[in-house]
Design brief:
Layout (H helix, E strand, L loop, with lengths): L1 E7 L6 E11 L2 E11 L5 E7 L9
Antiparallel strand pairs: 1-2, 2-3, 3-4
Length: 59
Amino acid sequence: MNILLDSVCPCCERTAVLELKAEAAAHDPQQIDIIVQCHFCGAVLNQFVAIDEMEMCGG
C-alpha cells in the first residue's frame, strides 16, 4: 500500500489522500491489478496493467 498525498480525485475533484494498492490479478498472473481509493469521497478506481506491455526502467 502507498499513499498518494495531494493528488486530485477524478470523482470528487478534490485534493485528497489517495491510497494505492497493486497486486497480481486473480484472473491472469501476467496482469497487475491497480486499485486507488479516495479517502475523502470513498471512490474506488481500478485498472489492470499487462506486465509485458510495461517499459523497462534502468538496467
